[in-house]
Structures are given as structure tokens and as C-alpha cells.
Amino acid sequence: MSTYGYTGRILRVDLSSGKIAIDDTLKYKDFIGGEGIAMKIMWDEVPAGTHPFDPQNKLIFGSGPLCGTGVPCSGRTNITSLLPSNPFYGVTSSHMGGYFSVAMKYAGWDMIVIEGKAPSPVWLRIEDDKVKIEDARWMWGKGIFDTQAMVASFMGKDAQVAAIGPAGENMVNLSVIRTGTSHSAGGHGGIMGSKNLKAIGVRGTGAVKIAVDSKEWLELNRFMMSIIGANNQHVVPSSPQPWAEYTDPTSRWTARKGLFWGAANPPVETGECDPHDMQSVGLRTMKATFDLGAGAEKYTVRMGGCAHCPIRCHSQLKVPQLERYGMDPYVSNTCMGWSSPRGVMFKGIKEFDGHGEDSSIVGTAIGTTLADDLGVWCNYGQIGRDLNYCYTNGVFKRVLPAEEYSSIRWDLLEKGDANFFFDFYNRVAYKKGEFSHIADGSYWIAQRWNLGDEYWNNKDMKLWSRLGYPVHHSNEAGGQVGALISCFSNRDAQNHSHMNFIGAKLPVKILKEIAGEIWGSPAALDAPNNYTPMNEYKARFVKWSLVRTMLHNSLTLCNWMWPMATSPLKERNYRGDTSLEAKFYSLATGINISERELDEAAARCFTLMRAITVRQMQSFDLRKDHDQTTEWVIHREKDKSGNELPQFTPGTIAMEKEDMELGRTLVYREFGWDEKTGAPTRACLEKYGMPDVAEELGRRGLLPT
Question: Which candidate, 115, 125, 259, 135, places its Cα nearest to that of 194?
Fold first, then answer.
């Protein structure tokens, strides 16, 4: 049977027995692909009560039907498993860009499902249909960069490799799986380590078939390219341009005359990048200066990125000073990959080792290289905040043995000396001493070190929930919209569907008009820092954002770019096209589906994740046990005189408790979940075609009545 979009095959590997098997993708097609199919497998095959590091846990590498087809921004890999930093070991997904998932598709596999535990370290070698479990004892203990090179020495330089470093090997809760130089999936590195799986190498020589002729496909691709913006779908430039009606200095569309990739040979000027010129799309996002400041221009070789992506949001730098530390001068990263090392420092990276005004860039490059090679996850910057809190509040002095405390170079931390990174990441990755528990995750250190309410309720800590995860675009992003989105995850929300719309940088008047067209009323969107009470249109915005992110993780598309609700084109009145996902899916697979139908399929997948959460928590009262925030989120802000400000005062982002409870109710209603508890009901699960899920939850007494 011919398949389109999908390869039709899932690779299953049992490391305990060494058995390799093939499964049929299309029996799961109601769950789309990527994260959706992974949730179905986790529900069916991972028993309640399984520990993340148990052999019975699954580790699922997933692609979707659009991956490998050439759809812009479709090179993401979705990784699903139980999360060790979560207190109830919640099912979560992590994501990485690069080229791994495309190689997986070209090798003929939609998904890779890993279970069991190898008796000694191994790596998985996939060359099209040929799959072999190889000895990795000689790789064990190596950093990720050396591991990738070792695998490539066997498979060839075009092989794509996903690997862990010492942090993953040592089952550090906050560890990553990495592919390429700068693409990592946070939180699941320890799962690979628990299975004695050092790396997966993939080399694919095939292709992905699509159902339509190339002309129709290329026309849709060209249309998509005509409305795409810059990184995070920012659609106006950061500085005045001859073609631009609007500008915003905070936009990630940073291209302008006089801004260069300064270390390129010869230097490349980013220029004005008129949106009608598709050949200049890759110059729009000069991320090095956005993330690292103006001084990064002279170090920038180019922008890199992921398969099938024109945006190129990974800064690739040459920092010659790194050679003084025995490091490769070439370093690449984006966003938190750059920000987290700086966040580890107590007062920022200052002058050190004679690097002068470039100290911050050089120090950040050192920290990034160490974290990436050892495979340490920053937990969206939380590890740095936890480190600084525990140091400044005397926690370390209280809980660390005196000898261990005195052995740590706190003076380097105080001075902002980047040499602190060497000791910090080494202790964390190799689990050295009590100090290394800082990488257990916020929930676990709060329990272990008795941090108390002051820790959880401190606004500067940015801890969203007592489940231990930080904010990731929450109430600062759309008020109740961002706040409610953050309540439904088992880790930091990783949701950019709302942020890419709210942060498109268009005038609020235009964004409100578009919001009315998508969600039924301009009242779905408030002006920044001028929030109004909750309403049903905001609830629709919340559901749409949750569903679209699940859809992107299932198709698999980059949620840092999709959806395309806005465009940079004045002649389109700055409107994008929210039906593009469905149009591409229909053309790729030959399965004609509407925007509404595809959103409903993604809502099915999200509801299944919700059901897994009910089963893992052994509670269907998710309103009380899962969806609540820490106190700072709803604690009234004060003016300069110390007086409490009324809720909804312009300039504040504090949420109001009763208003948030109304918001939860309205979102539950949108999904068809129980409005009292937030749990999926039997009727809801049956509506989504999951009567088996309803039956099991019913047997366990986990269905709301």
C-alpha cells in the first residue's frame, strides 16, 4: 500500500532483549503523528506508576507527516517520555531541531520507540532498513560533540546523530538529548542514560512521497514563503525600512543596512530584506546581536538552523578566545542556549582573564559549550535562578557539608568570572556531592532542602507551579491567555502559538482585528500590560493555542514559527493564513481535511495527554491538584509607595484569583471537559473516539461524575 507524507513504518527497539521490530504507523493516524502518536503509545503501553528510569518506560522519537516534505519550518523532532524532574513523573515532550527527524523519515521511519535496558552501553545504528544495536562502551563517558564525531566515523559525515553526554549517562534529571551543534531536547537525556543508550545515528537515502503533483505543492510553498516573517513570526522590522509601514525595536526582524555577519569571509550585510524578496528571508533574523548584544556582530560567521527552514535562528560564531581554554572556537546556539549560562552567574559575566568588553560574549560561549557538551539542561533558565537563590539565601551553607561548601569557588561566582562554569557544570554532570542536586529540578530541591513558601512565592524565581516548572510565556503574554496556557503542562509550557501572534509586533489595533476574525471578538486580545477581565473569547484563544502547539508537535512543524496568523505584507492587510497546516496536510497525505477537522484531531491528542495526567496523578480533580499557580501570580502588585494596586490596573500583570478560576472553567468548557474538575469526561472521551480510555479511567475511579 502506498503511503504519502507518512513512511508508514515505526521502528521498535527493545534494548533488553535486542529485538528489533516494525509497526504500522497508519493504525495510529487518528493521532496525526509526532507527539500525538507518542501519547497514544504511552497510554497503551506504559503502566501507571512507572518510574522514568524503569526499563518499562518508553522513549519515543517522533516525526510527523509534514517532516521531510519540504514544508517550511518542518525539521523538528518530538521526543516523548516520562519526565524525571516532574513530581508525579508526568508524560511530557521535548523537542529539538536540526536534521535528525528528516534523516529518520528518509531512512523510512516515522517514529523510533525505545524500551528496555541494554546490559552494557550501546548505540543504535540506522541506515535505511538496516538497524543494528552497536557496542558503545568505548563512547561512554565522552561528551556529546566527541560522541557525534565517533558515530559519524562509522556512518559517514552525512549521518545525523542524537546523543547524550555525561549528565544523561548519570541520569541527571536536568539533562538533554542533543543533535548537531546546538539543537537539544531538554529533560529526557537521563532516560537514554537509564537504558544504557549513548546515541542514535541515522542515515537515510530515501525520500518522502507526497500525494499531489509538484506544481500544486510548489505553489502552496511559494504562498507560505510570501507571508512568513522572522524568528517567532515577527512580521515588522526592528528599525525603519523604506518598505515598512511599522517598526518595533524589540522585533527579531533585526536586518538593516550596516548590520553584518562580521566574521563571514567576506562579511555579509543583512540589508533591508523587503518581504517581497524571498531570497533574503534568511538574513532577516540576525540572532547573535539580538541574544548577545552588538558586540557579537564581529564574531558572527552566519545564521544556521534546521532542515527546510528559511529563517535560520541559530547564531554560528567564531570566538578565537575559546582556544585559550582548549575549546573549539566555533560555537552555535540560540535563545536559552545563550541566556542560561549568563543566568547561572550571580551578577552576570564581568571582565575576566583579560577579555575586556567582550568578556560577556566569550564567557557565554564557554558556558554554552560546556553545558552542550556535558548535556546539562537549564530547565528554561531555572537552574540558574535556583543556584542564585540557594546561594544568596544561605541554603548551600545550610545543606552542604562544610568541606564541600568550602571547595566551591564562590568568589568566582561573585566576581562574574566565567571560570566558575568549569566547576559548576562538572559537578552537575557527574553528580558530585550534595551540590549536584541543584539539577534534580525545582520540586525535588524544594523537598530535599526544605525551601518553603518563600521560595515558591518569590516572583523573581518565576516558578509557575508547585509541580516545579518555570514560566515560559505566561501572564506577561496576553494576561489570562498566557497564564491559563501555562496551567495545562507537566513542564514549562513551551507554547509559542499565542506568543507568535501576540508578539508579531504589529500595532495592537491590527492584532485585535485579526483576533476578532479568528476567535470571534477583538476582546480575545488585550493591549500589553492593560488586561481586562476573562471572557469566552480569551478561552477560545487559549484552546486554539494549546491545540495548535500539539498540532505542530505532531505534524511536525516548528512552533517557534508556526502558526501563520499574521504576515509582513501590507497588501494582505497583515493577515496570514491559519488554514495552512490543513492545506499542507491534505496535499502531502492525500487525506483531505479542513482546518477545523485537523484542530479537532489535535484536541483529541491533547485530551489524551490530559487523561494520562489523570492516571499518573491518580486524581481527576486537576483544577485543584494540577492547574493551580504559585501565589505570586495572583498576588497584588504595589505602587512606589507600597500601596496595593487594584487588579487590572494598567501596567500590572498580576492575575486575579476568581478571574483565573473563571478562566479555567471557560477553557474546560471549550474542550468539553468536566467544568468542576477539568478532567475529561466519559462523553468527551467517547466523542473523541477513545472509549477504551474512558473504560480504563472508569475502572480506576478516575472519571468525574
Answer: 115
Amino acid letter, 417: D
Spell 421-450 as b/e; 16+ CB within 10 A means b: bebbbebbbbbeeebbbbbbbbbbbbeebe
Q: Which three cell numbers stand for residue 298?
A: 564581529
Are 504 and 233 in contact, with CB atoms under 8 Å apart? Answer: yes
Q: Give CA–CA dist 520/517, Å, rounded.
A: 6
Per DSSP, 22 falls in state E
Q: Number of C-alpha atoms within 13 angstroms, CB side, residue 604?
A: 24
b/e burial code for range 400-413 (CB count within 10 A of at least 16 → b): beeebbeebeeebb
CA atoms of 97 and 99, how far apart (whole Å): 7
At 418, give phi and psi (nearest 5°): -65, -10
What pLDDT, in 10s, does the model give residues 409-462? 999 999 999 999 999 999 999 999 999 999 999 999 999 999 999 999 999 999
Question: H/E element holding 124?
Answer: strand 122-127
Q: Is the pLDDT of residue 2 over 70?
A: no
pLDDT tens digits, 282-301 = 999 999 999 999 999 999 99
Roughly how many angstroms between the first and final C-alpha of the chain, as a whole number? 44
Rounded Cα distance between 271 and 259, Å, is: 7
Residue positions counted in the chain: 705
Q: Which domains does the chain have, with CATH numbers?
A: 9-203 (3.60.9.10), 243-316 (no CATH), 319-448 (no CATH), 480-699 (1.10.599)
Residue 103 to residue 97: CA distance in whole angstroms: 12
> Residue 486: which of 466, 504, 470 has the closest Cα?
470
pTM: 0.97
Q: Torsion over CA of 456, 462, 467 and 469, rounded to 10 degrees?
A: -150
